[in-house]
Design goal:
3 helices, 3 strands, alpha+beta, three-stranded antiparallel sheet, 26% helix
Length: 129
């Protein structure tokens, strides 16, 4: 066995990582595993199904629970919604930017949650008599 970085034959075992034997090169000090297999990832059908669920209004955690998506780097049975979030970001980065507005609309529509300005006028509560 040779070091993949400096081609030296002076290597030694350096513990195990995720069930695979880890090696270290004595000459250059780099760590490596002897058999490297990249993670397989999820099939495109699962990604497409998760993205369709997101577009239809399902939350990230609900999608993760429903589809059984887990982080690929995690060998435990814990599931994370961040995998679905990363897929949404990937697809979002491929979308084109909104075209420039040629004329300003006369009527606009806003959600009432985004238009609240000011403060609540409470007479009692935390910090007040």
């Amino acid at each position: 066995m040779h070091c993949p970085y400096c081609e030296s034959a002076k290597i030694r075992k350096n513990g195990k990582r995720r069930g695979k034997q880890n090696h270290i090169c004595v000459d250059c000090g780099r760590q490596f595993i002897d058999i490297y297999s990249p993670s397989k990832g999820y099939p495109d059908e699962v990604k497409e199904s998760c993205l369709r669920s997101y577009v239809n209004g399902m939350g990230f955690r609900a999608i993760e629970r429903d589809k059984g998506v887990q982080t690929l780097a995690d060998s435990l049975t814990l599931r994370y919604h961040t995998t679905v979030i990363n897929w949404v970001k990937q697809v979002g980065s491929m979308l084109p930017d909104a075209p420039p507005i040629e004329k300003i609309p006369l009527v606009g529509e806003l959600d009432e949650l985004e238009t609240f300005i000011g403060s609540k006028k409470t007479k009692s509560g935390y910090g007040q008599q």
